[in-house]
Design brief:
The protein is 33% helix and 12% strand. The protein contains 9 helices and 8 strands. The longest helix has 19 residues, at 20-38. The chain starts with 5 loop residues before the first helix and ends with a helix.
């Protein structure tokens, strides 16, 4: 079961191959067996998960199931979760029990998902290796001597190790995209304002955005379909229609132009990393995209600019 994508799990639950309680127990068993090596979870919410799974099975039997009903997920420990510790990977919030749910959590609850627990992260999302957590470093499941990236390293590690089929993350300057890359999974930082930040503990409100970490682009689209949309409790939330993000997954990339900055391919780029990037670019071309050489001469100023904008 743990090798299934979200889409495959959705179909299997709909067909009755197994129920949500069985699926949830399977993932809880995997967490118990494997997470001691990875340290990807801060809190495992076993009782809550099984209660939610039984509720999802009941909803399915009464004909009220949607595409995500009964699917277990992991949540980055930066989202407030009512009645569950929300620590932000910090000692300061080690005993903080959130009194309400973040909108991100609410929307997934309304979609019928099950919360397996809260994942480890760099303290207050300030890090890029997941080595700064009060609860200890997270390890990369492909090589436990290496980092998984950060700050959403716990989520990335859990999804890569199939301890959860998908997980939430947050991204200020790469905290979804970088660990997703280091762990070999799919990660997306949506456009700022697409997903509500209400109940998401801030690092930099001017940049922070919630997003998802999954096995495939199709899985990411399924989650974004329920997560995006206006939230009146977040003043930066965008009032735009939520299209079906799954609708164009099979379209050709003909006509898409991808700029390739020459500054990204110079001194300091690891040869192995460059090989993988070039393979990906060739795949984009095969799918119909056109690669266009460009220059971003101020790239060397990007990190100083980030640290000016982030606290602003």
């Amino acid at each position: 079961m743990h090798r299934y994508t979200l889409s495959e799990l959705s179909r299997a639950l709909q067909q009755g191959d197994f129920n949500s309680e069985e699926l949830t127990r399977h993932y809880l068993d995997r967490i118990e067996t494997h997470d001691a090596q990875l340290n990807s979870f801060i809190t495992v919410t076993e009782e809550l998960a099984l209660e939610q799974a039984r509720g999802a099975d009941l909803a399915r039997r009464s004909g009220q199931a949607g595409p995500l009903t009964g699917i277990p997920l992991a949540q980055k420990d930066i989202f407030c979760t009512q009645g569950v510790k929300t620590s932000c990977g910090s000692r300061m919030l080690d005993n903080f029990i959130a009194p309400y749910d973040a909108t991100f959590i609410t929307r997934l609850k309304e979609a019928g998902t099950v919360m397996l627990g809260k994942t480890n992260m760099d303290e207050f999302a300030m890090g890029s290796s997941n080595e700064t957590s009060y609860y200890g470093p997270v390890r990369n499941p492909w090589d436990t001597g290496r980092v998984p990236g950060g700050s959403s390293g716990g989520s990335a590690s859990a999804v890569a190790a199939r301890l959860a089929p998908a997980a939430s993350g947050t991204d200020t300057g790469g905290s979804i995209r970088q660990p997703a890359s280091l762990c070999g999974i799919t990660g997306i930082k949506p456009t700022y304002g697409r997903i509500s930040r209400y109940g998401m503990i801030a690092f930099a409100s001017s940049l922070d955005q919630g997003g998802v970490m999954t096995q495939t682009a199709e899985d990411a689209a399924l989650l974004l379909n329920v997560l995006c949309g206006l939230d009146e409790r977040d003043s930066t939330s965008l009032d735009q229609p939520v299209d079906d993000f799954s609708a164009r997954l099979e379209q050709s990339l003909d006509g898409l132009r991808i700029g390739i900055p020459e500054e990204y391919f110079g001194t300091g780029l690891d040869a192995g990393v460059e090989t993988v990037i070039q393979e990906a670019l060739r795949e984009y071309e095969r799918l119909g995209a056109t690669l266009v050489p460009i220059s971003l001469p101020n790239t060397h100023l990007s990190i100083p600019a980030y640290y000016v904008v982030a606290p602003a």
